[in-house]
Amino acid sequence: NAGVTQTPKFQVLKTGQSMTLQCAQDMNHEYMSWYRQDPGMGLRLIHYSVGAGITDQGEVPNGYNVSRSTTEDFPLRLLSAAPSQTSVYFCASGSGGGPVDEQFFGPGTRLTVL
Amino acid sequence: AQKVTQAQTEISVVEKEDVTLDCVYETRDTTYYLFWYKQPPSGELVFLIRRNSFDEQNEISGRYSWNFQKSTSSFNFTITASQVVDSAVYFCALSEARAAGNKLTFGGGTRVLVKP
Predict the structure, then answer these.
(1) Rounded to an integer, what distance in angstroms lies between the CA atom of residue A40 and that of residue B110?
(2) Burial label, B15 (beta-carbon count in 10 A; 0-12, 13-18, 19+)
(3) Which residue, B79, B95, B78, B88, is CA-closest to B109?
(4) Is there a contact between A99 and B32 if contact means CB atoms under 8 Å apart?
(5) Peptide bond into A8 cis (omega under 30)
(6) A113 touches chain B (CB under 8 A)
(7) What is the number of other CB atoms lying within 10 angstroms of the CB of residue A96?
(8) CA A30 to CA B114: how far, in whole Å?
């Protein structure tokens, strides 16, 4: 049971490049989400999904796309990277049934946009 | 809209001292859930505790204790007899019952430095 996995762990992009951050979970969780962590601001929700085929925007969705074709995977796409997207990105999953559930976080991806 | 405030950005203590982390939250929901997470220097997020808005009973788990007071919208966290391994950033977070998807609103975090 690997829990929540994220790849890559580190990434450096140039402004304007695109890339996809991968997230996978093997706990059969319905809920998955992406957060970004910036210094002094805690974690902020980018996008989330309540099940395969269903996604919605969080607090800071601009510049990011998501899709959820399977229960296990929830990739985050940066279409045209900007320096403001330099951050640490965390993927999380939860078993659903409402906010009572603990969310399990992946190890994070540290992204630098030059 | 919901909001979580952790007014202390950094706390420095000497080993074996107690340290209390403050967390104040805002929500219009009557049913909500509060969490504490720990982020050690290695960077991962470690779940510590979850409380629901109907349970104001304080909780102790080893050297950790939590004080939940709805009257002041606070959910404070105390580490008793701190150890160097407690050095980390601690986040308080809120999830509203009406929010879909287990969405969490985080505070800005408090960095705890425990010196030997």
Answers:
(1) 9
(2) middle
(3) B88
(4) yes
(5) yes
(6) no
(7) 16
(8) 38
Instruction: Determine whether the interchain pair A108/B91 forms a contact, defined as Cβ–Cβ distance below 8 Å.
Output: no
**Which tokens is A57 given?**
């925007």
Query: Is there a contact between A91 and A30 (Cβ–Cβ < 8 Å)?
Result: no
pLDDT tens per residue across span B20-59:
999 999 999 888 999 999 999 999 999 898 888 888 878 8
| A96/B102 CB distance under 8 A | yes
For residue B5, give the nearest of B75, B67, B69, B56 by alpha carbon.
B75
Reported as a single tens digit per residue, the pLDDT across A13-68 is 999 999 999 999 999 999 999 999 998 778 999 999 989 999 999 999 999 999 99
* CB proximity B70 to A under 8 Å: no
Which of B9, B42, B44, B104 best tests the A interface by mutation, with the highest count of A CBs <10 A?
B104
